[in-house]
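in:
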């Protein structure tokens, strides 16, 4: 028996995962069988309280019963990715908020539409064309308008994914590459001031450097979420993948589970940080709705916050299929 004092954010599920106990119910059962009368626990754990943990022999005995709920077939789906013929528009909305300790709050909202079209398949890779339009930013101003025009000028960009829909490479189409100088001249005519000229020069550098363009485009809010490796294999009711959040590219490991086993045409995946990465200054939750048969994303809802230097940064990202 091991005595453990519960840490903030820990759950029966997270602790069971750490000690490789398959069914979290046995963790509660074991504690309540061996603790004092005033130390019983329920499904919700309280930080600072004592928790009695079984030893490895007892854990193996529990696991041998093979009755963990997460072993149900419905909780371990095989997620396919069959995007052939896809031609869909999505509405994207991102709200970013910065809150300081003295209650100063700044918020900005960005929205745009994405047109996504499947083009072809090469070996085990899928090729898509992605275009953005109706880009709006509350605090953009003139430079925001320039940024929006630069983005639209590159429509469509080409996205290459693996067989499961994870982004591999983002690049310009041949047509855009060939007429980029015309695009640059048009942007310079629309925004003739010196600050815009500096922005356009930097834009040109990023566009003409294929590696840099690929890196920056993979940071795009829509691309990094829509083409995340969400179709990784499930094991014991959980699928995990390495990811990053915010434009500072903070690495995280995301764990996802099926919300409801009674799915038919659509399946909903709930996401949070893998138990090994739970920390006080970072929180992440996500909800993906996929079409069961094709594995195509219908809707996305992502919320995350991170505290740095006495400032709490909160981001809400939503992606909705347009009719």
């Amino acid at each position: 028996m091991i005595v453990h004092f519960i840490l903030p954010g820990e759950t029966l599920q997270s602790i069971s995962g750490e000690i490789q106990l398959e069914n979290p119910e046995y963790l509660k059962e074991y504690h309540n069988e061996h603790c004092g009368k005033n130390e019983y626990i329920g499904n919700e754990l309280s930080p600072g309280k004592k928790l009695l943990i079984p030893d490895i022999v007892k854990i193996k005995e529990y696991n041998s019963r093979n009755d963990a709920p997460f072993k149900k077939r419905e909780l371990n789906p095989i997620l396919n990715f069959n995007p052939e013929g896809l031609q869909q528009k999505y509405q994207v909305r991102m709200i970013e908020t910065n809150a300081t300790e003295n209650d100063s709050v700044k918020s900005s909202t960005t929205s745009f539409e994405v047109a996504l079209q499947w083009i072809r398949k090469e070996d085990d890779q899928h090729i898509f064309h992605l275009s953005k339009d109706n880009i709006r930013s509350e605090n953009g101003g003139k430079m925001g308008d320039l940024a929006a025009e630069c983005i639209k000028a590159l429509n469509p960009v080409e996205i290459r994914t693996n067989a499961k829909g994870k982004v591999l490479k983002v690049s310009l189409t041949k047509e855009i590459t060939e007429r980029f100088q015309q695009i640059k001249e048009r942007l310079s005519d629309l925004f003739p001031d010196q600050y815009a000229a500096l922005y356009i020069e930097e834009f040109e550098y990023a566009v003409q450097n294929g590696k840099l363009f690929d890196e920056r485009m993979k940071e795009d809010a829509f691309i990094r979420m829509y083409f995340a490796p969400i179709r990784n294999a499930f094991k014991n009711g959980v699928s995990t993948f390495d990811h990053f959040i915010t434009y500072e590219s903070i690495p995280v490991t995301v764990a996802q589970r099926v919300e409801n086993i009674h799915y038919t045409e659509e399946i909903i995946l709930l996401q949070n940080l893998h138990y090994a990465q739970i920390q006080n200054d970072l929180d992440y939750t996500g909800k993906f709705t996929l079409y069961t048969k094709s594995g195509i994303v219908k809707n996305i809802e992502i919320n995350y916050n991170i505290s740095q230097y006495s400032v709490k940064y909160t981001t809400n990202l939503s992606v909705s299929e347009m009719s």
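note: The mean pLDDT is 92.
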